[in-house]
Amino acid sequence: MSHRQRIQGRSAHARVAVLGAALVAAVGTGAVHAQTVFISGLSSNPDGGDPDDPQAVTACNGAPQTGVVYRNSETEPHIAVNPANPNNMIAGWHQDRWSTGSAQSLGAAYTTNGGASWTQVTIPFTRCSGGTPGSSGDFERGSDPWISFSPNGTAHYMALVSQRSVNENAMTVARSTDGGATWSTPIVIARNPAQDPTARSLFHDKNTITADPYDSRLVYATWTLFRTGITSVVVARSTDGGLTWGPAKPVATMGRTGPGEQAVFRQGAQIVVLPDRSLVNAYFRILFDNTTGQVTYEQAVLRSTDQGRHWTRVDSRVASFASTTAVDPELGVPVRDAQEIPSIAVNRTTGHLYMAWQDAGVNTNGLVSVVVARSVDGGATWSAPVRVNQARPASEQAFLPIVAVNSAGTVGVLFYDFRNDVLGDETLTTDVWLSTFDAALNYLGERRLTPSSFDMRQMVITGARGYFPGDYVGLSSVGTDFVAAFTVANNLGLPVVFPQNNNGTFVDANDRQSILFVR
Length: 519
Description:
Blueprint: E1 4-6, H1 12-19, E2 36-38, H2 54-57, E3 67-81, E4 89-98, E5 103-111, E6 119-122, E7 141-149, E8 155-163, E9 168-176, E10 187-192, E11 203-211, E12 219-227, E13 230-238, E14 249-252, E15 255-258, E16 261-273, E17 279-289, E18 295-304, E19 316-321, E20 343-346, E21 353-358, E22 370-375, E23 386-387, E24 398-405, E25 411-417, E26 429-437, E27 443-448, E28 454-455, E29 474-478, E30 481-489, E31 505-508, E32 513-518
Parallel strand pairs: 3-31
Antiparallel strand pairs: 1-6, 2-32, 3-4, 4-5, 5-6, 7-8, 8-9, 9-10, 11-12, 12-13, 13-14, 15-16, 16-17, 17-18, 18-19, 20-21, 21-22, 22-23, 24-25, 25-26, 26-27, 26-28, 29-30, 30-32
C-alpha cells in the first residue's frame, strides 16, 4: 500500500512568488482560464531526525554518498493521462536530487478531477522511499521517471535505479490498476551486476516506457545500454500488461550508416505506436566519418511492423542539428536541459508524427533554439524543421522542448526561455511557453504557461552541467486541452553557488524548486 499525502499548497512565499495573482490565458481550445496547481510537496524521505545533518539525511541511501543532496527540491517531471478516464492523470519526478546524479527517490502523484487537486504517493523504487534489503527497491538512488497508461487504465511507471557505491544499476517498473492510488512492488526488467566503480563497464541509461494504446497486453520499454566501447539502443517487451517482461534486445548498435560513416552513439530513445500498430523508436545519434574525421549529430528513428519483435536494420535520418544547451547570458552557467534528446508524438487519427528538439543551427547567434518536424509516412521521411519560438527573434534562446498532439490535431510544443530577463539585475528571469501549430506545422501562436516568472539562478545544480530543470518535462493532452507538468524555481532569494564542491556530503534543504501543473 502506498503512503498518501494530499497536496494542499506550499509556503506563502512560494505560492505568491510563483503563482502570482493573475490567471494564465487559456492553453487549450474551449478553456476559459488555465488551471495552475502545484503537484509536488515537501520531501517525505527520512531525515534521520536532523534535517541539517548530512549523515542523518543520507542514512536512508544505505551507503556513503558524495555531493549535494537538494532536499525538498523536485525536478524532471513526466505526466500521463488515463485514456479510460481522462480526469485521471499521474505525474512522476526526481525527489531530493543529488548534484552528482539521480535523486534519493522518485516522487509520484495522481489526480481524479482533471488536475484540480493531486494526491502524493510513495513507490519503493529506492531505499529512501521504502525499498527493503534484497528487494527490487534496494537501491541508493533513482532517476528518469516515465509513465504510460494502457487503454484499460493500467499505469506503468519506469525508473532507472542505481548503486553508485558499487557501480550497479537497473531498469525497474511498477504498475497501478487504480489510477495511481496504489502500486505494485517494482520489478526489475534489466540489471547490471556490481562492478569496479573506476572501470568502464556495463550501464543502462535514459529510459522511456510506452503502453500500446490499442492492446493492453503490450508494453514497450526502451533505453541505451552502454558497454565498454559500445552503445546500443535496446527494447524490452511485456505481453501480459507489464506483469512480466522479456529480455532487453539490442535494436540499434554501432555500425555503418553510409560510406565511411559509422554511428558511434545513440540515446534518448522513445517509442510511439501508430494507428496501423507499427512502432517508431526515436532518438539522437552521433555519426563519425572515418575518411574525413567529421562528427555529425542527427535525430533518427527505427521502425517495427510486428509489435517490436523485429526492427528495421538501418535507422532513418530525421535531420542533422547543432548540439548545444542554454546558458546564463551573464554568468555563463550552463543549463542541463534536453540538449540532444528529442521528443516525439503521434496524431492518433492520421498517424502523422511530430518530433521536437534543440538546435543551435536556427539561432542567428548560434545559441540554443527549438525546432519541430513532421512525418506523414510513418517516419520514413521528414519535413524540414520549423523553428518553434516564432513569436520571438531568432537570436533568442529557447530550450527544453516537449511535443504533444491534441484531439483536434493541434500540435503543441512546450519550451523554456529568458525573454523577460533584464540584463544586469540579480535574477535570471525564466518562463515556460506553449507554441501551437496546425497539422501541417503552420504556426498558430503561443501561450505563456508560467503565471509569473521565476529565477533559474535559484535552481539545483548538477555539477559542471549547471542548473537542472530536468532532461525533460511533461506534456500531454485531454481532448482539445493540453496538460503540462514542468519545473519552476521557488523565488527564495537564495542563488546557488557555481561551481559546486562535491568533495564531501552536503545538504541544501531549501525548497528550491517544485513541479507545477498547468491545463
